[in-house]
Every structure is written in C-alpha cells, then in structure tokens.
Amino acid sequence: MAKGQVHAIRAALDKNGYSRTKILGYSAKFASSFYGPFRNACASAPRFANRSSYQLDYQGSRKALQEIADDIKEGADTVMVKPALAYLDVIREAKEKFAFPLAAYNVSAEYVLVKLGAREGLFSERKMVSEIISSIKRAGADYIITYHAKDIAKWLKEN
Hints:
This protein is α/β, with parallel strands linked by helices. 49% of the residues lie in helices and 13% in strands. Strand 2, helix 4 and strand 3 (102-106) form a beta-alpha-beta unit. Helix 3 packs across helix 4 (88-98). The protein is globular and about 55 Å long.
C-alpha cells in the first residue's frame, strides 16, 4: 500500500538474482471493519490512531483503481483487492479496466459471518460458501484467498 513499494521490491529481487520471483501487490486494501475478527484474534487492532492513512476509504473505487494501476506499472505480477465480498464492484472494475491477474482476499469477518450463521442453523454453510466464492470468481478474481479453503478442499474430496 505504500507508494513505490512494489517497485522497491522488484528492484531488490532483480538485483539479487530473483527476477523470476513473482510479486503480489497489496494494491487495493480498504479500511474495513471486515478485518475485525483477525485483528482481535492476534491483538493487532491499532492501540492509537488508525490504519486509514494507508488503507483506502471504503466509500469509493477511484483511488483503488489508481493504486492497482500503480502496482502494475511498478512491476507487480498480480494485484489484489481486500476484502473481497463488499468490494465485488471494485474487483469487476479492475478486471475490466486492466485485464491483469487479480487476487481477491475473502477476509476474516466474511468467514466468521458464514460460520456463525451456519452454526445458528440460518443456512447451509456449504451452499453459502459456494455462493460467495462463485460471486468473487464471477466478479473477475483469478485467485481467491479465503479462510474457507480447508472446508472447500474437504467438500471437493467428498464429491
């Protein structure tokens, strides 16, 4: 998320003989409440100030698209939108505008909401996860990073 970060990483890798090492740009990371469960679990919530100085305002997409463009220009091999579910529109816009490898990060609160709802019997966890992952893919994500990965792998083995 820091200006020039991807460029600095690319230059250091290239200089040290790692020119084939891929870089995933943390391109569009929004200042989101969806990180809450993870931050609470590892006690990483800010004790002072907040992360809004280097994370994007959740109300707009223009800055996100600019950050993605910057990371591509600086040498990222893949760009990312985080969180995924509340930003499907940004994923779609980015994929259409850049036609570039795109990852989406399905974060902790997105995961916890599904787990809690399924535990309370409100819906089928498997069906809900399938719908969420499908929507992220349909929006344009080439890669999906998700806490649901182990469950998905287990369900795929069962088929």
